[in-house]
Amino acid sequence: MGEENYNLVTYGDSGQADRRRQRLDLVRNCPIPDGELLLNMGLFLVPQTLSRILFMDFLYRQILDVQGIVMDFGCRWGQNALLFTAMRGIYEPFNRLRKVVAFDTFGGFPGISAEDGNSQMMSTGSYSVTEGYEQYLAKLLELQEAECPLEHISKHEICKGDATVEVADYLQRNRETIVALAYFDFDLYEPTKEVLQAIQPRLTRGSVIGFDELNDPDCPGETLAVIEVLGLDRYAIKRFPYNSRTSYLVVE
Fold first, then answer.
1. Confidence at residue 108, expressed as pLDDT on a 0 to 100 scale
2. CA trace torsion 61, 62, 68, 73 (10° rounding)
3. Which of 184, 201, 197, 180 is nearest to 69 (CA)?
4. 42 three-class SS
5. CB of 101 closer than 8 Å to CB of 72
6. Among candidates 41, 14, 11, which has minimal Cα distance to 27?
7. Alpha-carbon gap, residue 41 to 45, rounded angstroms
8. Closest CA relative to residue 222, chosen from 101, 122, 102, 77
9. pLDDT for res 13
10. Which pLDDT score, from 0 to 100, does residue 242 have?
């Protein structure tokens, strides 16, 4: 893949981009045989990525005794959805009801509101993906499920489009839905607010909501949406000690 510009904002030092290019070159020219490459992907993890994986694992373990599905809002490349699918296979391989549902436009930000501020990342189309990527992601999810028990029962779904519309449609089609874990990575005010309102009646005590950009000056809209829908005085907003940006709360 080339050097497409998806308006990605990073916070590394001046040498980070060069180090990442060197690592990418090592990935592309890896001498490990094909039959062993997938077994050694830890070779290429940077600490920031590993800390996010640990955070997703932490969130998933909080819901093991909570009934409901996992919803991944703003999934983009789909890493979280794949991780949650793998964690289901590890922690509760026979839980056919723990569906993982991923939402994204797959076209980047659909629009920006005044509440979203004016940081570099705030422009229509930011954080898009390559054309037709959702088909690639669907195949990855299918193969991930095939590595686990009950692979003949599909336990994932990709909802492409405006999540404020898609989540309402999903809940209408699946009226039994309880949400055990919802992860928000929209970065934006309007979809965060509207989707929080949509899933609120589907949360139960013990449900976990994770956030990617709370208290982040580059994405003020996410925090404003949480204040308006949930209120900061009703829940303890906690952070994972090994990942500075992410937050979560538990419905009690």
1. 96
2. -90
3. 180
4. helix
5. yes
6. 41
7. 7
8. 122
9. 78
10. 93
Q: What is the per-residue pLDDT for 17? A: 87
With b meaning 16 or more CB within 10 Å and e meaning fewer, what string describes 179-211? bbbbbbbbbbbbbbbbbbebbeebbeebbbbbb
Class of domain 47-250: alpha beta
Among 250, 240, 251, CA closest to 56: 240
Tokens of 157: 């779904």
Token pair in block for residue 185: 């990575």
Task: Compute the C-alpha angle 152/156/162, nearest 5°.
Answer: 150
DSSP, collapsed to helix, strand or coil, labels residue 162 as coil
User: Dihedral through CA 64, CA 183, CA 229, CA 66, nearest 10?
Assistant: -10
Burial letters 25-45, b for 16+ CB under 10 A, else e: eeeeeeeeeeeeeeeeeeeee
| Spans of the chain, pLDDT less than 70 | 1-9, 12
Q: What is the pLDDT of residue 37?
A: 96
What per-residue confidence (pLDDT) applies to 67? 98
3-state secondary structure of 183: strand
Beta bridge partners of 69: 179
**SS3 letters across 45-60:** CCHHHHHHHHHHHHHH
Q: Which pTM value belongs to this model?
A: 0.94
Which amino acid is located at 206 in the chain? Answer: G
- 120, 174 in Cβ contact below 8 A? no
> What is the DSSP pairing of strand 69-73 with strand 247-250?
unpaired
Q: Which residues pair with 157 in a beta bridge?
A: 101
Taking the C-alpha atoms of residue 80 and residue 145, their distance in angstroms, rounded to an integer, is: 14
